[in-house]
Amino acid sequence: MGDIMRIGLVGAGAIAQAHLEAVRQVDSLTLAGIADVRLDAAHAMAEEADCPAFESAEALAEETDCDAVIVCTPPASHADICHALLDRRLSILCEKPLCLDSATAEALLEKAKSANVVFTMASKFRYVDDVVRARSMVESGVVGDLVLFENAFTAHVDMSKRWNADPQLSGGGVLIDNGTHSVDIARYFLGPVAEVQAVEGKRIQGLAVEDTARLFLRSRDGVMATIDLSWSLNKELDHFIDIYGSAGALRVGWRESRYRQTASSDWVTFGTGYQKVAAFANQLRNFEAAVRGDQALRITADDALASVRVMEAAYRSLGSNNWEVVEAGRG
Asked: Are 248 and 223 found together in one domain?
């Protein structure tokens, strides 16, 4: 591998566009090619990126000298695509959710380990500067002992024609789609999850999957978390993370992040909010450094598997209407 890492992109949808913009922000990366089963979509994006287009991940891997690949196709396709790339010993950054079940995820992780390549899940919010700052502040005791973590990803989005609402492609609805981000953020702050309960809201859009859900988590350290998810309502919040501790509170916002300690009446601003392209670029820099052997992954293979495990428990809960235990050692 030379000074410039050549990276391939599998999938030419909206999330691929975000990755393409991020690649442009990282001087040490160049795009080797773009693949999509919709060859016209691959060609359109490849023309914009000034790189070749391919109809399959296998063709991309065989006809370019790429060092690593970003997989950003619908979740049901992740396993087959990643197996094909791992057969060619390519490192992979795979979009969330990693897989639709933990057995599939475990098989991929074992294969990546045997191939001695980097394999992990993309989950942009761990790479938001304010989220990283907030975690550092929490760990330093700014808000005292953690008591409650809250997260909300809610917006009015018409999902009637999107693959994310097709359970055959997505594995579920808003719970697995937006909720995978939520679970990863919660684990980033709270550590392993012990048990979960998921409750579905009223279906507004007439979809085959849930469009509104609430997820309750309890960490192994006993901290509670609540997560609100919806494609059919907007809570009109200016923040997406609220953390409450014994000595204060902290909020990570879309445009501003701040904290207030119990002994003070003043909120203190510590960040400027969510910057999408910057978060994607930070993620790519971390992935690149891990492939080069220069840095540890911020989202490890174990984190990626734990995310799948927690989501499996969440869907069991949705069916049972009970709290469900996340497999020990995997949450």
From this structure: yes
* Exposed/middle/buried for residue 103 (C-beta within 10 Å: 0-12, 13-18, 19+): exposed
- d(C-alpha 74, C-alpha 79), whole Å: 10
Q: Are residues 103 and 136 in the same domain?
A: no
Q: How far apart are CA 173 and CA 192, in angstroms?
A: 24
Q: Tokens standing for 98?
A: 């990693």
Domain count, the chain: 2
CA 212-232-155 angle, 5° bins: 100
The rounded distance, in Å, linking the Cα atoms of 94 and 82 is: 8
- Same domain for 137 and 107? no
Contacts of 144 (CB under 8 A, 6+ apart): 245, 246, 247, 248, 262
| CA–CA gap between residue 285 and residue 276 (Å, rounded) | 14
298: in domain: no
Residue 301: alpha-carbon gap to chain centroid: 13
The tally of CA atoms less than 13 A away on the side-chain side of residue 31 is 26
Q: Which residues, including other chains, have CB under 8 Å from residue 207's CB and lie 6 or more apart?
A: 159, 160, 165, 173
Q: Which of 91, 106, 122 is the last residue of a domain?
A: 122
Question: pTM to 2 decimals?
Answer: 0.95
Question: Tokens 């501790």 correspond to what residue?
Answer: 245
Domain boundary among 63, 88, 122: 122
Do 90 and 182 lie in one domain? The reply is no
Range of the domain at 66: 5-122
User: Are residues 55 and 148 both part of a single domain?
Assistant: no
pLDDT averaged per 10 residues, the chain (length 331): 89 96 96 97 95 97 96 97 97 97 96 97 98 98 98 98 96 98 98 98 97 98 98 97 98 98 96 97 98 96 96 97 85 63
CATH at residue 270: 3.30.360.10
What distance in Å separates the CA atoms of residue 74 and residue 76, rounded to the nearest whole number?
6
* Integer Cα distance of 154 and 177 in angstroms: 12
DSSP string, 223-269: -EEEEEEESS-----SEEEEEEETTEEEEEESS-EEEEETT-S--EE
